Amino acid sequence: MPSDPRDWRGLIEAGALFAAFMDLDEVLRQALPYSAGAARAERSRLLLHDEAAGELVVAAAGGAGGEQQRGRRFPDSSGIAGAVLRSGQARIVVEPAGPVMAAPLRIGSRTLGVVEATNPTTVGGAFDAADLERFVASCSLIAIAVENASLYRRLDRETQLLDRTREDLARPLVAESPAMRRALQHAERAAAGRSTVLLVGETGTGKEQLARRIHEASPRARRPFVALNCGALPEGLLESELFGHEKGAFTGADRRRIGRFELADGGTLFLDEIGELPPAAQVKLLRVLQEREITRLGGAETVHVDVRLVVATHRDLAAEARAGRFREDLFFRVHVVPIRLPPLRERSEDVEPLACLFVERLSRELGRPPRTLTAGALDGLRRHQWPGNVRELENLIERLLVLGEEGPVTAQEVAELLPQAPALAASASALPASSLWDHERQLLVQALEQAGRNQTRAARLLQISREQLRTRMKRYGLLPSGSSSRRP
Q1: Helix (H) or strand (E) run with residue 337 in it
Q2: What residues does 313 pair with on adjacent strands?
Q3: What digits encode the pLDDT tens for the residues 381-428?
Q4: Structure pTM?
Q5: Are 282 and 235 in contact, with CB atoms under 8 Å apart?
Q6: CA-CA-CA-CA torsion sign (37, 41, 42, 44)
Q7: Domain boundary among 340, 365, 380
């Protein structure tokens, strides 16, 4: 113990102060002045250990030039910090730039990082044993505060993840048809690795379900699965959702928001409708895939992320790249393991088991007595072209349960509840052979005409959300003059 008990007063006050902070950035901001004061040092910096990358990251730095050091990375075996990290023992080293004192941030048997103090302010220009003792004590308090704040941040991320992903995890993938069985086999083989998977299929074919299956069969199954539909968000919000933002980054950013990449760290990120990404977001996504790090909007710190990427699209991305609407370099980055999901009209063997599954589950959820499907009803379901695929079938079963009478479902009931989609599908099939771009634009025009320009009804006809419809209308120049991509 130091001879003067007053030397410990600042550390006691620091311990009480740190206990009140749950924000990691605030802990780091407050910790450095106390560590420098305890060591009587001119400068100090706190380095956290990124074990996965094998690096020490400057999380906070105080003194002259400290702000410029934040975010810098070093091999975890280099310098005095690396030596202290490996040994777990504090030490004083005299370097050409001046004396340096370093101590580990230890919690039990784990070392979270290292704190360094440089250039003593005491007369004589050297650190002594008393400085080292106080410094080690201050680092013990900082380690506890960093651990508590890190746990709180992790809990906050998981809470955000639960708030954002409320999909039905119990919905199974039916695969009686050879085409669907083949897609599942490819997915199971891809799950074991970390290669990017590209799922190609029409809207409603079960791309997100298959992405979850890949995640759950992978070594990352115990880590988060995070999903984002790139076509469901206005362009101005998409980058914030992907990469997060700092407080004050833009109007309305009243707090830091963790993006999907950070939420998925260690797990799987599923980007649906990747073909809808605007050019600026394509550039940033390419950089993340190359560097495996992100920068939040409005921030300067780079954050290392370890994410397995699964992407999906209903577009022909190769054709989009040739036409200049999708970056060719990004296409080659995501087109590593392509898996095609067949539309429901190509897997008639799956219609009956899917329909029976939906009847059982939806009857239970709606509190309705289950209904059987007659042979005529099943035949009508098999003959339908299903432009909305499995999602359309599920919606039809729900309508049959809500609107129908008790008893078996008849062929007439099925026919009465499918008046619009077949007409739209028939008109689409009559389109002349042309590019995918022309084909989709014509579908939009036809749906808008059938709906009397009512966007909500047109979106329902196309089995997509209103935001997705407006995004596509903007791309094809179909929005009224002066209209934005946001809801009017």
Answers
A1: strand 337-340
A2: 200
A3: 998 888 888 888 998 999 888 888 888 888 888 888 875 443 444 444
A4: 0.57
A5: no
A6: negative
A7: 340
